[in-house]
């Protein structure tokens, strides 16, 4: 099998750009990175399928002249999956934008609380049964945006988009 | 009736049920009936498949009538059928629990119409991943269950869930991309994606190429299974979801990753050059996971860390690559699916009763609700591996396999698993002491972060009628109690179960039963 070097180079460029974007903190950029890498993988399947040929229809073309149909089927499936996931990521980025007015990936709050406690080398507030330790004030600097549980999921279909519900507005 | 017809049914039935439930979105009752019926049927199908696969060897269906190297095959061998059975049981329990929770907490008239269809799609994805005899179909199974899990994890779209969901979705996407890239490379190198077909062709590849494919597949599956260096996403994302969702994720999703590792390592790469690497990963997963659990102050987060930690036991068994090691790993997977789901369901009950899962806020629950205390105590001790329970038997099997192996690294892992077991006991005892035995907390439950927020609408009406309430309480406690009983049954029937996993393990190591069932005419 002879590989097409132009395609291989294209795969490399798509992956490099995609990985760079994946490492960004903004969900929209991550999304574009995912799309780029997805296309990179699809191109990689084209490389894997070997040289191009005629339509793989038995009786119409000689077997020797046909191109390999399987990678094309796999790529089609992969494209459909990427499409669905892209739609979901877009909905999530939109929802994050609604709630926080940005779509940056945020840090884990509880993790930060435990890390700070470890840095100060203290036990949790109820450890020695003396009520009301310092940890109770920690809640103050945790982000708002905590509303009542909504009743619908984003991306649940047309007409089911969740409204802002007044959360953090 | 031909029994092999049941194999695709395990995938098609939940998908069909999902469509039906979605169409019936306006009627909560109809949705409930559909989901319950589908999952109950799944349990029956899976049970028949276990018996059949054990008696008559792997059950193979070539989808669409195209024979194996050309078409896609679905295979239910002993391992797949066993995993399918235990997943169906766990999914059914969680569904019953979420029915109880849905009715009690949201009132009978305001269900989440998207919950039931998504849950069924998740089950279909899990079943497809377990039964797939084709690497690309395995990828599709993963994507089905992941897409469903994205929706379930961000259910309601609250700020905290979107935050946790973002991490989860991005990490899962990276793992999917790595898997897909590995698939493209596999096809380029071998010209096939059928597992049985690959088993022969990968042996003929140059070592370096095979190693590259193996490493990429392992990385992709290790992210899904939350093996140590790739596990940081899990404790961050799981605890924020609704209790039944967390429970089913903890039980099933990581185990699908473990299953994929078992399948590919045994079938495709039997003489693995990466055993030592896997051993190190297992050791670090166990120890670092459990140290994380000890530091946690929230029951759900603590359980998430123990989940990561105990994945290490399974990887340990796989890395040993002996009959005894694999058998122990399979037994441990089955045990862990049941127990971890059970503990997360109980954490949901604790959240309802105590208003929080934070150990800072809980206290005195043993007096308040002795039944809840019992429901927590049994699986907690089971997870820690106290002797009569299945956790002890699973760990014992793995440690024996480790001692049989005799290598220095294997002994280090045996020591590591004992230490992890003790630290699990410590973490569980800490949760028990502070939530159940300690005097009621003077701080008391009150508004804290979203994580500790009780997912209750304050204005939601209790369902009318005392009888209905009692029935719904039963629907909440019943599945937790049922799973605890399944856990106990795994002790009582440990002999037959271990015999079954032994046979499954020797099938996996021989490879021929699987390959010959899929390719009866031999590889072209």
TrEMBL record, chain A:
The chain crosses the membrane at residues 6-23, 30-53, 73-94. It is a multi-pass membrane protein. The keyword Cell membrane applies. Residues 117-169 are annotated as: Disordered. It is found in: Cell membrane. InterPro entries: CPA3_antiporter_subunitC (IPR050601), NUOK/Mnh_C1-like (IPR039428). It comes from the Bacteria. Its main location: membrane. GO terms for cellular component: plasma membrane. Residues 146-160 have a biased composition (Gly residues). Keywords: Cell membrane, Membrane, Transmembrane, Transmembrane helix. The keyword Membrane applies. Pfam families: Oxidored_q2 (PF00420). Belongs to the CPA3 antiporters (TC 2.A.63) subunit C family. This is Na(+)/H(+) antiporter subunit C.
UniProtKB/TrEMBL annotation, chain B:
Residues 132-418 form the NADH:quinone oxidoreductase/Mrp antiporter transmembrane domain. The lineage of its organism: Bacteria, Bacillati, Actinomycetota, Actinomycetes, Jiangellales. It is a multi-pass membrane protein. It is found in: Cell membrane; Membrane. Keywords: Cell membrane, Membrane, Transmembrane, Transmembrane helix. GO terms for molecular function: NADH dehydrogenase (ubiquinone) activity. Belongs to the CPA3 antiporters (TC 2.A.63) subunit D family. It holds the Pfam family Proton_antipo_M. One of its GO terms (cellular component) is plasma membrane. Residues 447-460 have a biased composition (Basic and acidic residues). PANTHER family: NA(+)_H(+) ANTIPORTER SUBUNIT D1 (PTHR42703:SF1), NADH DEHYDROGENASE (PTHR42703). Residues 443-462 are annotated as: Disordered. The chain crosses the membrane at residues 6-24, 33-53, 79-100, 112-130, 136-156, 168-189, 209-234, 241-262, 277-295, 302-322, 328-350, 371-389, 409-429, 476-499. This is Na+/H+ antiporter subunit D. GO terms for biological process: ATP synthesis coupled electron transport. InterPro entries: CPA3_Na-H_Antiporter_D (IPR050586), NADH_UbQ_OxRdtase (IPR003918), ND/Mrp_TM (IPR001750).
């Amino acid at each position: 099998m002879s590989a097409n070097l132009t395609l291989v180079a294209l795969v490399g460029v798509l992956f490099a750009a995609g990985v760079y974007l994946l490492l960004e903190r903004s969900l929209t950029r991550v999304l574009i990175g995912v799309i780029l890498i997805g296309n990179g993988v699809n191109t990689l399947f084209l490389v894997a399928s070997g040289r191009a040929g005629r339509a793989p229809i038995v009786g119409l073309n000689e077997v020797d002249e046909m191109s390999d149909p399987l990678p094309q089927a796999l790529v089609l499936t992969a494209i459909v999956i990427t499409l669905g996931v892209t739609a979901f990521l877009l909905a999530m980025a939109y929802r994050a934008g609604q709630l926080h007015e940005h779509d940056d990936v945020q840090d884990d709050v509880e993790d930060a609380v435990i890390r700070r406690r470890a840095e100060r080398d203290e036990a949790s507030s109820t450890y020695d049964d003396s009520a009301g330790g310092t940890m109770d004030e920690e809640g103050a600097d945790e982000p708002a945006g905590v509303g009542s549980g909504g009743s619908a999921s984003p991306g649940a279909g047309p007409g089911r988009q969740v409204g802002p519900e007044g959360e953090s507005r | 009736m031909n029994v092999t017809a049941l194999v695709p049914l395990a995938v098609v039935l939940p998908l069909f049920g999902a469509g039906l439930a979605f169409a019936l979105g306006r009627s909560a009752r109809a949705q409930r009936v559909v989901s319950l019926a589908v999952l109950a049927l799944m349990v029956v199908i899976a049970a028949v498949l276990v018996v059949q696969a054990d008696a008559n060897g792997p059950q193979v269906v070539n989808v669409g009538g195209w024979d194996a190297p050309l078409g896609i095959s679905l295979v239910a061998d002993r391992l797949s059928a066993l995993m399918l059975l235990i997943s169906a049981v766990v999914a059914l329990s969680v569904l019953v629990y979420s029915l109880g929770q849905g009715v009690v907490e949201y009132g009978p008239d305001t269900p989440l119409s998207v919950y039931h269809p998504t849950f069924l799609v998740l089950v279909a994805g899990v079943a497809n991943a377990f039964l797939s005899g084709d690497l690309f179909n395995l990828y599709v199974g993963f994507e089905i269950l992941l897409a469903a899990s994205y929706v379930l994890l961000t259910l309601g779209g609250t700020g905290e869930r979107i935050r946790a969901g973002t991490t989860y979705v991005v990490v899962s996407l990276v793992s999917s991309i790595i898997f897909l890239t590995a698939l493209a490379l596999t096809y380029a190198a071998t010209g096939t994606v059928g597992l049985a077909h690959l088993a022969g062709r990968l042996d003929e590849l140059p070592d370096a190429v095979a190693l590259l494919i193996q490493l990429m597949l392992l990385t992709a599956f290790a992210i899904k299974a939350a093996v140590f260096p790739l596990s940081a996403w899990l404790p961050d994302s799981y605890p924020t979801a609704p209790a039944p969702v967390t429970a089913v994720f903890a039980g099933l999703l990581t185990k699908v990753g473990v299953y994929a590792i078992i399948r590919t390592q045994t079938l495709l790469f039997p003489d693995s050059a990466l055993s030592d690497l896997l051993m190190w990963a297992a050791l670090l997963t166990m120890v670092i996971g459990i140290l994380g659990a000890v530091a946690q102050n929230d029951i759900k987060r603590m359980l998430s860390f123990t989940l990561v930690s105990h994945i290490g036991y399974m990887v340990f068994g796989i890395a040993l690559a002996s009959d005894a090691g694999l058998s122990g790993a399979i037994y441990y997977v089955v045990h862990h699916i049941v127990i971890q789901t059970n503990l997360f369901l109980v954490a949901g009950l604790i959240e309802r009763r105590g208003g929080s899962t934070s150990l800072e806020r809980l206290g005195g629950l043993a007096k308040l609700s002795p039944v809840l205390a019992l429901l927590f105590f049994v699986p907690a001790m089971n997870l820690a591996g106290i002797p009569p329970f299945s956790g002890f038997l699973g760990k014992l099997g793995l440690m024996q396999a480790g001692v049989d192996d005799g290598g220095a690294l294997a002994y280090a892992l045996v020591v590591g698993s004992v230490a992890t077991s003790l630290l699990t006991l410590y973490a569980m005892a800490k949760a028990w002491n502070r939530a159940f035995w300690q005097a009621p907390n003077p701080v008391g439950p009150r508004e804290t972060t979203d994580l500790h927020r009780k997912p209750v609408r304050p204005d939601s009406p209790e369902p009318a009628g005392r009888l209905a309430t009692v029935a719904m309480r039963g629907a909440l406690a019943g599945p937790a109690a049922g799973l605890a009983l399944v856990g106990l049954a795994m002790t009582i029937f440990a002999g037959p179960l271990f015999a079954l996993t032994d046979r499954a393990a020797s099938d996996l190591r021989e490879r021929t039963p699987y390959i010959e069932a899929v390719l009866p005419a031999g590889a072209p």
